[in-house]
Amino acid sequence: MHAVSIIIFSLACIAAFYAADSLVAGQWLTVKARAAILYVLSMLAMGLVGEVAFDTAYNAAFGWPLWQYHLLPIHHSYTSVYSLVIWAAMGLHLYLLHEAFKKRGITSVHVLAVVFCMEALLLEALLNLAYQIFFGDYVFYYLPTDLWHVTSVQALPIYFFGGYIAVLATRLALRIPRRALVGNSLAIAAVLLLK
Question: For the packed helices 156-175 and 83-103, what is the interaxial angle rounded to 10 degrees?
Answer without folding.
Answer: 70
